[in-house]
Amino acid sequence: MSSTPYKVLFLCTGNSARSIMAEHILRARGAGRFETFSAGSHPAGRVNPFALEILQQHQIATDGARSKSWDEYRGVKFDFVITVCDHAKESCPVWPGQPVIAHWGSPDPAAVEGTDEIKRRMFLNVFSQIASRISIFCAFRDDQLDEWNVRTVGTQFPFETSSRT
């Protein structure tokens, strides 16, 4: 295992749901092996309350969760930069230090319309997808944390259309 934690940045557009959940899930499950961050290209300015709720229901601390711009991290050398929405993938800036860049796309649960029950179900589905991918990521040994493996994680657990609402 690396003597210093790997720096991982999760990116999406608003940094209000998917990237926030990914940041906090990896922080909780990474057991100090990963130092986690999240940001957005166009931050929403607040974290979606359903994202906080689902994290807390899974006993994942949400201390310090806030929506922020990726400009805050310009110049920071990350080991991994992972986009969780297509827009962030398309507009992802160049990061110093040649980090592994991967895309683990998930549908935007904050875009779902309907009752709070429908929204909660979507947040739970997206949470489960992200958590499953992070479990694979955490299971890799250091020598397996290469570009091919990390990118392949994003193809795992495709989202089922029938579970969107």
Structural descriptors:
165 residues, alpha/beta, four-stranded parallel sheet, 5 helices, 4 strands
Written overview of the protein:
With 165 residues, the protein is of the alpha/beta class. Helices cover 35% and strands 13% of the residues. The chain has five helices and four strands; from the N terminus they run E-H-E-H-E-H-E-H-H. It has helices spanning 18-29, 49-57, 86-91, 116-139, 147-153, and strands spanning 6-12, 34-40, 80-83, 100-103. Helix 2 (49-57) packs across helix 4. The mean pLDDT is 92.
Head-to-tail CA distance between termini: 41 Å
Number of strands: 4
One letter per element, helices H and strands E, the order comes to EHEHEHEHH
Report the major sheet.
4 strands, parallel
Rough outline:
globular
Query: What is the overall pLDDT average?
Result: 92
Strand content: 5-15%
Query: Structural class per helix/strand content?
Result: alpha/beta
Radius of gyration: 15 Å
Unreliable segments of 5+ consecutive residues: none
- With strands numbered from the N-terminus, the spatial order across the biggest sheet is 2-1-3-4
Number of H- or I-type helical stretches: 5
The level of helicity is 25-40%
